[in-house]
Structure formats: structure tokens, C-alpha cells
Request: fold
Amino acid sequence: MFPMQFRSTLATAGLAALGLTFALPALAQDKARIEFLYSPFADYAPFFVAEDLGYFDKFGVDVTLSPKSGTAETIQMLASGNVVAGAATWGAGLFNSIHSGATVTIVGTLAKMPDTVPSPSPLMVSQAAWDAGIREVKDLKGKRVGIPGPGGFGMFSVAKALETGGLTLADIEPVYLPPPATAAAFANGGLEAGWSIEPFAIQLERQGLGKRLVENHTFGTELGFIAFNNEFAVKNEDAVVRFLAAFLKAARQLDNGGWQDDAILDIVAKYTGTPKDTLQGIPYTIRSEDGSIDIASVREQEDFFRAQGSLAYEGPINIDSVYRLDLLQKANALLAAE
Reply:
């Protein structure tokens, strides 16, 4: 949440004080067009809901949701201007890109880990490994552990899970593969453990292939962020604010009971390809109500990747150089005035 002083000022100052002079709704012919890159995971549910329930239209932006293949693709496409908006997880590549002057503008949080269990991103152990006596983190010493790839959130999450048992990444044999491939690796004995994310974690459980080993390792950790091509954001601040307002409206709906709504589950199932009954049983990532980013959490991840030797610079990155908190504040004001 924004500090109480800010929220109080916001409530009394009105939109004009923040430089917001537009009215709602915008005429159809005036709608800004935004192509947004997404992954078919529940973390992106606010965008699916905002699109299908007409929130983007209501706030005057014409949004096209386009599937993507990975975080690196998002940053590259945004920096090049091939796509104007997308979301990605924090990682070494992003930090290095900021340092090298990547032309992206970060405008808010995508999602963060909840402070509760079950976790939407557990460290799993295969059923075969469990039956063989691997019941604690310390038992993973020298074992094969699946990680989505070097330099990303999955690696950070695995490292934090290993810490709970006194181990480090140097104590295990990392095997790089995406979460959907963990099921096959567990089934054929290719892995003893692996990082997972919903809905794959619950599927491993239901198929009898794996068990949750660690779930309390990343409470409150920032998972990802929303970003725009910098040139687009500078020239189209109004559109970015409108886009964020629609996102925040949908996110608050989800985080305040929306996941119990069958119509919402139908929407998310359509975009993710995940059966509705599976979505009903999984834990979800969450967001700060105002969409702000916990910078301390981001710094923790930056420090981790520096310790891994994955960063090409010294000292903390200048996140303020790419984080447009002012646009997020305006989006909150616009939503409050709806």
C-alpha cells in the first residue's frame, strides 16, 4: 500500500493535482493500442480478467494479449519496440539489461509470493525419492534438482529452499528444465527434486509423482513486474495509466475473492489451458493492493545474483531510472475516481 499520507492526499487533491485531465470512458476511435506479452500461468490472471470483463475497454485502451515463450523474449521485444508491453520475472538478465541501458519502463508489480502455505511455487521431491528416504532438504546433498534455468527466479527460489536445510546450490546437481517437464523427469527417475509452479505442482501431487518438500522459503518475495517499451511509455503516459488502472481493478477483484467466482475461473482456464477444477485447488500468487513493488525484495534477488557471479556491474542498480512510480500513482487515482 502507499503510505497513509499519500492516500489521504490523493483522496483530497483529486485527479487534476496529479496531472490527469482525461475523462472516462474514451471514445472508441481514441483508444490507444497496446499489445501485451503474457505467459499462460495464473500469475497473469488480472490481464485475462481485465480483457474479458471489458475493463481495458472501460478505461479506454485497446489491448491485444499475445502469448510468449520466456522472460528474455519479453525484455528483448520491449527494448526493441517490437511489442510495447509485457511482464517478466526478476533475474540476472533483467538487472544486467538495466545496467546496460535497456529501454524499458517498469510500471508496477506482476505478482509476489503469499505469506502463507501451500505455496504456489514449492520445491518438490519425486515420489520415488521420497520412498527412497529423501524427506528433508539436507537429504538433497549431491542429488539432481530441476531448475528452470540459470539467472532467474526459479534459481533464486531453489537456493532459498536449500538454505532451509543448510545447503547451497553448490551442494546439488542442477538440471535445467522448465516446470512442465518435471513430471516426466520425476516419472523416469531423472530428478530427485525440482522447482515447480502452479498448476504443475498440484498436478504432480494428483498424479502421485511428487510431494511438496519446502514451501516457506519465499514468503512475500516479488516474482515479477509489468513493463513497457520506454519510448512508448514516454509518448503515451495516458495509455499506460489507463492500462494499469484496468489491471489494478482486475487484480483487486481476484485478490478479494474473485478466485471463488466460476465466471473468473472460466476466463483463466481459457487463457491458461488449465482445467477449471485444477484452478479451484491451487494456491495463488498475490499483489500489493496499489500495484507497487517491494524494492527490498528486488534488492535481495539482485544481491543473490551478484553472489552467483551473474551480474556485470558492481553496487546496486539504479531501479529508479526505470521504475515509473508516478504512472502507478496516477492509475490508482484514476481507479479511485471511477
About this structure: Residues 1-17, 21-28 have pLDDT under 50 and may be disordered. The beta strands are 32-38, 61-67, 85-89, 104-112, 123-126, 144-147, 173-176, 193-195, 210-214, 222-229. The chain has two domains: 4-115+221-336, 123-214.
